[in-house]
Amino acid sequence: MGREVTKAVVQADDLTLVAAVDVSHLGEDAALLAGLPAAGVHIGKDLPAALGASGAQVAVDFTAPDVVFDNICCCLEQKVATVVGTTGLSSAQLNEIAQRAESACTPVLIAPNFAIGAVLMMLFAQQAAKYFDYAEIVELHHEKKLDAPSGTALKTAQMISAAKGMPMISSNGEKTKITLAGVRGGVCDGVHVHSVRMPGFVASQEVIFGAAGQTLTIRHDSISRESFMPGVLLAIRKVRELKGLTVGLENIL
Questions:
Q1: Domain with CATH 3.40.50.720 in the chain
Q2: Has 155 been annotated as catalytic?
Q3: Homologous superfamily of 2-110+226-252
Q4: How deeply is 179 buried, as exposed, middle or buried, from its count of CB atoms within 10 A (0-12, 13-18, 19+)?
Q5: 123: Cβ–Cβ under 8 A, 6 or more apart, which residues?
Q6: In 3-state terms, what secondary structure has residue 219?
Q7: By Cβ atoms counted within 10 A, which residue in 37, 46, 68, 93 is the most buried?
Q8: What is the three-class DSSP state of 225?
């Protein structure tokens, strides 16, 4: 994702890449690593130093759940607006980020998914939830994804429950004999969520609604990481117009 974001920013006429931070490829030209001509921006490992020296106005974070919170706090301390695609933040961490963003008068936009189609899938599921009592989510990602379930799946389940006004009906009735622990997946607000991790996938999600005599399936597939870039660029361009913490790309579409 870092390489794709680098490529998208360098190729955008209205944006300028001023710094790149990673724990690997230190000293390499970021644009060259992304498959473009060298841009003179070399990868460093010190985020505070990179932000301070570059004059960055917006930082984009696609890292890992165990470091993203500290990265966001570092950006807020330096009053750099932040676009975050890393999932796995806890509710307590989100609350803390919201407070810090408000205090720093610096916006943060966190999106569990930057693919426009995925955002629409979530919104369509939210609308359908009003008319169904049963819903399940199957999310499929590459084997290197560090969290399960995905942030997109959790956000979708929460949107479904909020639209319904109550938790969806859990289909684990008394007549269902569970012979393998975990076979029904995890449950978020009454919505069963199933995570698949294997090579061949980038990011896919299927939301299945059921009622007597019918099912409705809403599915989105990201075939490549390019699918996320229009949303990332939109977020970079819009984030400084926001206030405090904003969660979800749908808020700026």
A1: 2-110+226-252
A2: no
A3: NAD(P)-binding Rossmann-like Domain (3.40.50.720)
A4: exposed
A5: 159, 250
A6: strand
A7: 68
A8: helix
Catalytic: 141? yes
User: How far from chain centre, in Å, is Cα 174?
Assistant: 36
Confirm if 253 and 119 have CB atoms less than 8 A apart: yes
- For β-strands 134-141 and 191-197, DSSP reports them as parallel
C-alpha closest to that of 44 among 55, 63, 30, 34: 30
Q: Which of 145, 192, 194, 220 is catalytic?
A: 145
In the three-class reduction of DSSP (H, G, I as helix; E, B as strand; rest coil), residue 108 is classed as strand
Query: Could you identify the residue written with the tokens 């932000």?
Result: 51
Give the separation between CA 56 and CA 106, rounded to whole angstroms.
Answer: 13
DSSP-based three-state secondary structure for 110: strand
One digit per residue, the tens of pLDDT, for the chain of length 253 reads: 999 999 999 999 999 999 999 999 999 999 999 999 999 999 999 999 999 999 999 999 999 999 999 999 999 999 999 999 998 899 999 999 999 999 999 999 999 999 999 999 999 999 999 999 999 999 999 999 988 999 899 999 999 999 999 878 776 665 778 889 888 899 988 899 999 999 999 999 999 999 999 999 999 999 999 999 999 999 999 999 999 999 999 999 9
